[in-house]
From TrEMBL:
Region listing for Disordered, in residue ranges: 36-76
Source organism superkingdom: Bacteria
Bias (Gly residues) ranges: 54-70
UniProt name for this protein: Uncharacterized protein
Signal peptide, first to last residue: 1-29
Annotated source species: Chondromyces apiculatus DSM 436
Length: 412
């Protein structure tokens, strides 16, 4: 059976790329190979982003403590420090940090602890939340903290590849999806080491989050709104916060007329895809068809908690599909940068990461055509992408199982 980049270890850790294909296959007559729960383990990782993550990919606006691997004054590192992974083609970027961790690359988001957050599992349950913290220096090893979570994921189902620290109610979001054709699953909201709430959702793929305890929003790509088990449109969805800390915090109104029900923001394509929220709260989402993929941008105002559904602005349409993206927010007259790794739709090969510059003027608009940003040293190297709270992109890759190198990209 063909192997795909996985986002967590173990037989019940379905690839984030393949999860999108499998989940949306429920809308069609035939399933994709590997969607029946028999996918082989793979190596490497292709993640969704954060500003995270956000975020997938991530929790934009969630902030964090601890180091972020350098800042705008950090010197650029010699290219030899990351040459085994890639070279930087874009002259406006350089590497300001290189770190290693004894984990698979997975689908990291930016955690509230001030470093990458991963979820992994050996055999479905319990899940492990892995928090990586950078040292003060520009190079070195990331320290690791692991928390086990009893998720109650049913046997034969797949734990989602992304863990997401939400900027409200101190929750961390996880998910699981059933094997095709039963793609019903759940969104799990974790407090400390316990699942405090669980909501039905179909084909949850990737998420990002905005706001705070008083006014928060979970954005995610899936086949249904939170609270609905049946498959609907392949779309970007939103679930706004209701209640307050210590006063029945939740994502469903449950009869409260002051709360909005989860809603579909915009539907396009046939297959779920990743989402990134930049530091300013602008969201970029990629959903794919069976031959190509379309990226749409949503400004912070268009996507804020309580905002009405909106179509979004097309940033690019490309062949194939992809599962890893992250965004650097605009600064002054400098446009933002969306970094994305596409996959060949016929061979499933991971291609060189590309970038699209964007500006925000009421909406998120492209500022030029997609261009190559990184040149992979070895073809078909899957990378994970996430944005930290210093507006830098972390590029992770696992050249060997169980070990990941993260390279932090910043503007010169």
């Amino acid at each position: 059976m063909t192997r795909f980049p996985i986002v967590a270890r173990g037989k019940r850790a379905l690839s984030l790329t393949w999860l999108g294909l499998c989940a949306t296959a429920a809308l069609f007559a035939a399933s994709a190979p590997g969607c029946d729960g028999d996918e082989d383990d793979g190596t490497g990782g292709a993640g969704a982003s954060t500003s995270s993550q956000g975020g997938s990919g991530g929790s934009g606006g969630s902030g964090g403590s601890g180091g972020s691997g350098g800042d705008e004054s950090s010197p650029c590192l010699d290219p030899s420090t990351y040459a085994e992974l890639f070279s930087i083609v874009d002259p406006t970027l350089c590497a300001v940090g290189v770190y290693t961790a004894e984990v698979d690359a997975g689908a990291p988001t930016w955690g509230r602890h001030g470093g990458p957050l991963l979820v992994q599992t050996e055999d479905g349950d319990p899940a492990e939340l892995v928090r990586l913290t950078p040292p003060a220096e520009a190079t070195g090893a990331l320290s690791t903290t692991v928390t086990q979570i009893a998720t109650g994921v049913p046997d034969g189902s797949f734990l989602g590849g992304q863990a997401l620290d939400l900027p409200f109610f101190d929750w961390t979001a996880l998910s699981w999806t059933g094997a095709f054709p039963s793609t019903e699953g759940e969104l799990l909201l974790v407090s400390d080491d316990t699942v405090s709430l669980r909501y039905a959702v179909n084909g949850f793929y990737a998420g990002a989050a905005l706001g705070n305890d008083a006014d928060g929003r979970l954005l995610y790509t899936a086949l249904s709104p939170v609270g609905a088990a049946a498959a609907g449109n392949n779309a970007l969805y939103a679930a706004d916060t209701c209640g307050a800390v210590g006063q029945d915090p939740r994502l469903l109104p449950e009869g409260d007329a002051t709360c909005a029900a989860p809603t579909e923001v915009s539907a396009w394509g046939d297959l779920s895809g990743p989402i990134a929220v930049d530091r300013d709260g602008n969201a970029i989402v990629i959903l794919a068809g069976f031959t190509d993929q379309e990226a749409r941008g949503f400004s912070a105002a268009e996507i804020a908690p309580g905002a009405e559904p909106t179509v979004g602005e097309t940033l690019f349409t490309l062949p194939g599909f992809g599962s890893s993206l992250a965004a650097i927010a605009p600064e002054g007259d400098t446009p933002g940068l969306l970094l994305f790794q596409p996959y060949d739709g016929a061979t499933y090969e991971a291609l060189d990461p590309i970038g699209v510059h964007y500006v925000v003027d009421g909406t998120v608009k492209p500022d030029g055509e997609p261009v190559q940003v990184l040149k992979l040293t070895s073809a078909d190297t899957a990378v994970s992408l996430t944005t930290d709270d210093a507006n830098q992109i972390w590029v992770g890759a696992s050249l060997q199982a169980g070990r990941t190198t993260f390279v932090i990209l910043a503007r010169r």
